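HUMAN:
Could you generate one sequence with tokenized structure?
ASSISTANT:
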Amino acid sequence: LGIAQMTAGDTNSGIASITKALQLNATMQPAWEARARGHRELGHTTEELLDLNELLELDSSHVDALLRRGILLSETDPAAATGDLSKVISLHRDNATAWMYRGLCYSRLGDRALADLNLACRLRPDDSRPWLERGRCLQAQRRSNDAISDLSKAAEIAPNDFAVRLELGQAYLDSGNVEAARSNLMLAERLSQRDAGLRLAMARIDIA
């Protein structure tokens, strides 16, 4: 019943029905999967994470649950996230999302980020996100020219992506190319008027 309710678009009722079912039988893996998915749809990150934990207690090699938990933990606990993402990679070495997020975790930990991001770019060359994240990593290492190359590739794929234009503008600014920086940051400004990082970068151009 709960899964049918969620399929019909009534996520809250679906979660309530699944919760009652789990109280009677907590070993139903599809129920944990569905309730975690429902919490994700509603933006209930804490509840989703708890359901993923329960799901992985039942099946420690559940790839989708490992990947999703790794993504959720990548911001708050990158060390723990690398464990989940590494397990996904060991099971499916062509999972570009796992390589990309593990690279981001390594970057936050000051570890070997580029190796994972390199592979993510090779596995998903037509997706702007791996190029964007590798460009950010290179920029953090003050390798502006290499960052510009990756961010330009991301801009070719997603020319109207605010984050790509903002990062590319900042990379050009750090390299000393003020005109290219201005062009990208003005485009970013048209895409979003609210970002504090954008205002800071534009202020740097005004000073230059």
